[in-house]
Amino acid sequence: xxxxxxxxxxxxxxxxxxNAVAVVPSIGKQNWTDVQMxxxxxxxxxxxxxxxxxxxxxxxxxxxxxxxxxxxxxECGLDFYKDIDRLRQLFFFDAQVKLALTYDLPLIxxxxxxxxxxxxxxxxxxxxSGEIHDFxxxxxxxxxxxxxxxxxxxxxxITNKEAHKARQIVQNCPLEFILIETDDHKxxxxxxxVAEEIALLKKISLDTVISQCDNNAIxxxxxx
Length: 224
Description:
This protein is of the alpha/beta class. The chain has helices spanning 55-68, 86-102, 115-124, 139-147, 164-172, 191-202, 206-221, and strands at residues 2-3, 21-22, 42-43, 72-79, 107-112, 130-133, 151-154, 178-180.
């Protein structure tokens, strides 16, 4: 199984199984070096860390992208739930959108209470590709994003029977647009629990879920 979003470089994280595959995103300059230890990594500036970054950091980010062959740009995006300057968030997100277009790389987007703004940005830039990881928007927004060709990432939250909205979106979202992830969950090997829950919600086989979600990740990130 391919874990589309796992912070394996975090100190609190358990080791991933030897033969498992994961996409490891960064959150900012503090771990641009660390994520390069993994076969599939991404460079980005997370909206939670924008206040500790400068324009010079964006220039260094571009240099790293040119020299180190990341498979994506991220984790980037917008989080309007947090008390972080929105204009600053938008500035850094827009800058990373431009890098994605320049270097023909998919985006790994964090979006909380800002899905509508993210959709507007994607509509203005139809050549963009990527995923909205740990999707938390509405079903209508999910439909808009998949029509734009974007994938939606789901993690262990959907195993909570009280997460009615997320579980309904999984039920109704075409499997061809779903990615599975563990994000910052302590055990990345719990990815199977996510796949099993999707199989139950969609009333399809686990093998079908794993095969399609793996193919989705391979297609989006051009994995070998």
